[in-house]
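Usage

Read records sequentially. Each one opens with the input sequence:
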Amino acid sequence: MTNYFSPIAKTLVCALTLTSIFSSCKKDKDVVYPPVVKPAALTLVHAAAGVAELDFYVDKDKANAASFAYNTTILDLKIAKPGKKELSVTKKGVADILVKLPVEFKEDKAYSAFVTDKTASTIVFVEDDLTAPAADKAKIRFINLSADAGILDLAITGKAEALIAKKDFKEFSPFIAAEPGTEINFEIRANGAATVLATLPKVTIEKGKIYTIWAKGLKTAPAADALALAVMTNK
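and closes with the structure output:
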């Protein structure tokens, strides 16, 4: 077989090939890839006693695929593009907005939105500090979502000192360290008084976990919507 390439030509071909490879590598290095955006997370809670099913929106996107009735908690919705958003609430299947709230989601952060008040006219939006508790501890926070219960203290039954004190309607505490245990009985009291307004019996608090306890319902409501306590595990 005849070889049509001279040694010089072969050298040139090799040089051009290497140049092409190096050029390609350089181009790959010069490509600027967009940073990976970590989504934010959102938990929804319907805490508006006496209010029927709702629809919850983040901007114009409906966030609840399933029923969003009183006492419903929807955990860990992903906000794919964090930033400034508008939260809004309507009655189920109705366009009229009951309440709207401008908020900002930060990348890789977690948040909770509680719909409350007698007509679902309030959204309490809080950032969830999900950093790990201290060794052998849990973390707990308290939110007062009862529109007519007044200023409340959260306490453990049998202990005179409040665990978290003086929270008015829509106010919330930071997460605090809490002792783990089983069958812990929590209660809410009128601020500074011994009067017990509602209890949450036999709660298990595990070390390393994070919890939110909230007051819900109304002092003046029928049993289904009466003043009570609820708890969820944030992490």
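Summary fields computed downstream for this record:
- The chain has two domains: 35-128, 129-235.
- The longest strand covers residues 181-190.
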